[in-house]
Amino acid sequence: MSQVVATGSIQSTLLSPDSGSAHDRAQKLLKLATFSSIVYPLEGNKCSKLGSRSFHISARKSAPVEVVPVSPKDDSKIEEHLQHLRGVQQFGDASAGMWSKPSFRRKTKIVCTIGPSTDTKEMIWNLAEAGMNVARLNMSHGDHTSHQKVIDLVKEYNAQAKDNVIAIMLDTKGPEVRSGDLPQPITLNSGQEFTFTIQRGVGTADCVSVNYDDFVNDVEAGDMLLVDGGMMSFLVRSKTHDSVKCEVIDGGELKSRRHLNVRGKSATLPSITEKDWDDIKFGVDNQVDFYAVSFVKDAEVVHELKNYLKSCGADIHVIVKIESADSIPNLHSIITASDGAMVARGDLGAELPIEEVPLLQEEIIILCRSMGKAVIVATNMLESMIVHPTPTRAEVSDIAIAVREGSDGIMLSGETAHGKFPLKAVKVMHTVALRTEATIPGGQLPPNIGQVFKNHMSEMFAYHATMMSNTLGTSTVVFTRTGFMAILLSHYRPSGTIFAFTDEKRVQQKLALYQGVCPIYMKFCNDAEATFTRALDLLQKQGMVKEGEEVALVQSGRQPIWRFQSIHNIQVRKV
């Protein structure tokens, strides 16, 4: 059967240079009361300017093609297939160039939560080979002994792997409000009365403890209480000095230590608890690469953590998790203070109306892109694969949307932590991301990434290196000791892979998160030309570039290597 391949060129005033600075556009988007009005308002037959999209669709029949394989080992097999897909797409943009070539290395990075299903040496090796780029430690579960085991295994893998590296992310528990222990699960039905109390050790058929002493003060009659993000819901009817009496709205099975949210409210707890500080010190001792900080409400939390890390001499990047209602008004300052953000859609959808979550996701990605920050989309991406071997079609679309919106990373939680099919989940995520990236137009004008790099010459060179890479269809080679230039290039999203050579192991690991960056550890020598030659030989030996292929070599950044501070250059070299 012949196949019709349709491609769309999407122009949005959201990213138009005529629609104001990236900062101004992002600020306009971050007014909670106007999320819906930004996208949906209609005046007569005219769409709102900010939400408008114009689509140009072209279709061409192609020869029958095979389904894209689900393993990264099969990447070489789909080269011809991807070339064909690129070939039939006509984007109508001359900047793509007649020499434009596809890139077959997946650019969007995969974050995997490690848990009981995957905390063995064999599974961590298999996850890495299947496509994992970042190993996430969820400090809400397990103890330091179990997490130490995982850290040691990841470091062992990194020491042995020749052409791959896995970063380590420590995700703090944060100020979670949870129900207490129950002797056995309780089945609750709609209309039934149920009580939550701040008294310790209560666990009966009609009452359970809560681990938060101010819980009674934070809720009012009429509030909606959600269990596990909405799996069960309770309407608050009344309260006493130590108890909250509720009516079951959506029943189900209540188990021990379930997560509790109040719709539209955040708990009046510090973002970093005493347990979190212990976990953060554990991360410093083990030299993790990233902290994902839960329930960040303002920038002061980020400053406090960064000051602590500076006092420890720890070079660990801080990723803020956007998951509470209180974080939205302060979104710009929070992300400015951080090294990146995670769209934690579970709690975000519990504290805010669920219809706002996809709008917030897109807007957070746009804001992070405009500010040169990493961004990860998380929660429920392949939730059904916790118990099923194949995903729902909606989940596949969810991954594709996050990739097309420009997320640096996409995350698996329970799917790999305690799911039945962790490797299949990673392979599905890898395949969907790779297939989606093959349809994203290359050679487009890089968007203005905002004010964060405005006073540095490197931004101009990153821009021109991206344009050169896109026009000639080349990969980009950069040498870095801090990761700065590789990260800057990543945010411009060149069509080719960014091969980032560094002689710092920690920098190599951090770069594993950033979109399109292939971090490679290599010792530098004093002779620049000899180092360039060694780097290109290494790429050729590992099959990352071919003989006769051209690459764009960039020398720029904050810390000069083999150049004077005032000299920046871009070269095109043939392998």
From TrEMBL:
<dbReference type="InterPro" id="IPR015793">
    <property type="entry name" value="Pyrv_Knase_brl"/>
</dbReference>
<keyword id="KW-0418">Kinase</keyword>
<keyword id="KW-0670">Pyruvate</keyword>
<dbReference type="GO" id="GO:0004743">
    <property type="term" value="F:pyruvate kinase activity"/>
</dbReference>
<dbReference type="InterPro" id="IPR018209">
    <property type="entry name" value="Pyrv_Knase_AS"/>
</dbReference>
<dbReference type="Pfam" id="PF02887">
    <property type="entry name" value="PK_C"/>
</dbReference>
<dbReference type="InterPro" id="IPR040442">
    <property type="entry name" value="Pyrv_kinase-like_dom_sf"/>
</dbReference>
<dbReference type="InterPro" id="IPR015795">
    <property type="entry name" value="Pyrv_Knase_C"/>
</dbReference>
<keyword id="KW-0324">Glycolysis</keyword>
<feature type="domain" description="Pyruvate kinase barrel">
    <location>
        <begin position="106"/>
        <end position="426"/>
    </location>
</feature>
<feature type="domain" description="Pyruvate kinase C-terminal">
    <location>
        <begin position="462"/>
        <end position="555"/>
    </location>
</feature>
<comment type="similarity">
    <text>Belongs to the pyruvate kinase family.</text>
</comment>
<dbReference type="GO" id="GO:0000287">
    <property type="term" value="F:magnesium ion binding"/>
</dbReference>
<keyword id="KW-0460">Magnesium</keyword>
<dbReference type="InterPro" id="IPR015813">
    <property type="entry name" value="Pyrv/PenolPyrv_kinase-like_dom"/>
</dbReference>
<keyword id="KW-0809">Transit peptide</keyword>
<keyword id="KW-0067">ATP-binding</keyword>
<keyword id="KW-0150">Chloroplast</keyword>
<comment type="pathway">
    <text>Carbohydrate degradation; glycolysis; pyruvate from D-glyceraldehyde 3-phosphate: step 5/5.</text>
</comment>
<dbReference type="Pfam" id="PF00224">
    <property type="entry name" value="PK"/>
</dbReference>
<dbReference type="InterPro" id="IPR015806">
    <property type="entry name" value="Pyrv_Knase_insert_dom_sf"/>
</dbReference>
<keyword id="KW-0479">Metal-binding</keyword>
<dbReference type="GO" id="GO:0009570">
    <property type="term" value="C:chloroplast stroma"/>
</dbReference>
<dbReference type="GO" id="GO:0016301">
    <property type="term" value="F:kinase activity"/>
</dbReference>
<keyword id="KW-0934">Plastid</keyword>
<dbReference type="GO" id="GO:0005524">
    <property type="term" value="F:ATP binding"/>
</dbReference>
<dbReference type="InterPro" id="IPR011037">
    <property type="entry name" value="Pyrv_Knase-like_insert_dom_sf"/>
</dbReference>
<dbReference type="GO" id="GO:0030955">
    <property type="term" value="F:potassium ion binding"/>
</dbReference>
<keyword id="KW-0630">Potassium</keyword>
<protein>
    <recommendedName>
        <fullName>Pyruvate kinase</fullName>
        <ecNumber>2.7.1.40</ecNumber>
    </recommendedName>
</protein>
<dbReference type="InterPro" id="IPR001697">
    <property type="entry name" value="Pyr_Knase"/>
</dbReference>
<dbReference type="InterPro" id="IPR036918">
    <property type="entry name" value="Pyrv_Knase_C_sf"/>
</dbReference>
<keyword id="KW-0547">Nucleotide-binding</keyword>
<keyword id="KW-0808">Transferase</keyword>
